[in-house]
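dumping the sequnces here before i forget
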Amino acid sequence: MQHVSPIREPLVTGGKTYHDITEDVCRQVEAKPNARWAAALAVALVGLAIFLWSVYRTLWFGIGEWGLNKTVGWAWDITNFVWWVGIGHAGTLISAILLLFRQKWRTSINRAAEAMTIFAVICAAMFPVLHMGRPWLAYWVLPLPNTFGSLWVNFNSPLLWDVFAISTYFSVSLVFWYIGLIPDFATIRDRATGPIARRAYAFLSFGWTGSAKAWSRYETVSLILAGLATPLVLSVHTIVSMDFATSVIPGWHTTIFPPYFVAGAIFSGFAMVLTLMIITRKVFKLEDYITLEHVESMNKVIILTGSIVGVAYITEFFIAWYSGVEYEQYAFINRATGPYWWAYWAMMTCNVITPQLFWFRSIRRSLTATFIISIFVNIGMWFERFVIIVTSLHRDYLPSSWAMFSPTIIDIGVYVGTIGLFFTLFLLFAKYFPVVNMAEVKAILKSSSEVKHHPHRTMHGTDKDSHTNTHHSND
Amino acid sequence: MTKKFVLGIYDDEDVLLQAIENVRAAGTNIYEVFSPYPVHGIDDVLGIKRSRLPIVAFFCGLFGTSFALWMQIWMLGFDWPMIIGGKPHIALPAFIPVTFELTVLCAAFGMVITFFIVTKLKPSFKVNVFDKRSTDDKFVMAIEVKEGKTDMTALNDLLRSNGAIEVNEKEVIK
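..and the predicted 3d for all of it:
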């Protein structure tokens, strides 16, 4: 009585057993670091060094090290902040929204995607904190009493909402990720041979034993966390978009921003997940778990969100014309034909045109094409934020204050540096943590693999297939 | 004090579920079942009640909502009122984002902390696992042995006739 669907492809290929899953996922955790991993980590550490150097320059000499000026007061810093936060949307979306939608293909990618989310949010947080100029006073954004020397924080400000949204998102994502890791840490602990590994993973596994009662609660907690994280993930980029939308700058003051930003965030997040997973599956030989089916599913999300973003770009343009507001009209004409025309058209090409290639099934299922397009999307989404921020600010209402922005070496250093920070964290994660959620993949194995299981009887009390519309084999 | 357990080892979730039902029907008390992943339907056959953690989450969330609203209204409305952007002191629509975020934060953390406490999950270097394979690919049914009362041969037969691939004994320090 196994599900055999002529339509759906198996999510785990290669005739894996439960033990094979444990072996395949634990292999790189237990093995000695290999040369390729060490080389990648060395490159990432160079990036991290660049980050530390740039941060040192920024803190020691001040924000003047950046290319900002009084007209373009937000530039690469906020561009990078929004870019990273956007990337950080895929993980929780995959694990929370796809859990609520019962999309089983999430199980083999949710772990790495959530890790990516957490690391991306860490990178994102660097920018507003550094932009404060005096990051050691960063705690002033919290509601602290008047006697402390300042008034209460302004709860009417979207920048303050951002503080709450990003920190809540970060901590809830971290907890969600960690809860999922506990059973897998227990698996590694019970296989560990070295004393350090055994103790370290015992500590990390919180003494998990996998009792039925604990699993029952675990599932409840996961479901409720998913229910909480779903509106949370949507709220985060909504609030980020309000940083712009509640201002009066032409090109920012629009109601389309929240949905358009959320779609863009999912779009860029999935692109980054694909970029990382295509490499990870190859390096760690996880092709049987992260299959072409998974890649195709993610590509479908990319084409959906990419098209929403495309429609949003065109809508913005139309509304600018239809509003009859000269400043709005100029802002958009200036984006497309002004001095930053190349940024606008890079955004249009990478976000609107290239993802449309995913309408072809062969391209959706081609790893090379997917990898290249995912890079295009990453670039395009960076340009989107650059276009929104810099082109709107550099020519606003008062022509006498018009200015241009160009980044300094420190701007580039901080940005490249956060990429180094991100990959350092991701590589450490990939080596020491299980990159695929073993417990969840085991749970779907029976219904979604190629292996034929012949249990003695059907599941108890109820026919387990009675709620599905998949076809059954006649055995 | 040590306790003695008989462990029935299974390698299939459906066999396990049937076995649990039969073992319980035979009047044997199951101490605990360990599995590498959440087995669907196991709650019903073991008689595990629905978790009340969602209720905890709800009340923690409610606390978050009330706290956030109280904090913002008190700070900007009473403690130090200021006119910001010509809006009223208590500008409720502007307070919604922070209220929402604190609701989610409190609900999530309240529930997860409660989960750790009730499930007795805490960082520790020593772990008592009945059978290490239960976090890999085996399902382990643990039955407590009461000296002089438990008929070991009958128990062994019962487990084996219900599909156990191994039956082991284990003493655990409790």
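Chain B touches chain A through 76 residues (CB under 8 Å).
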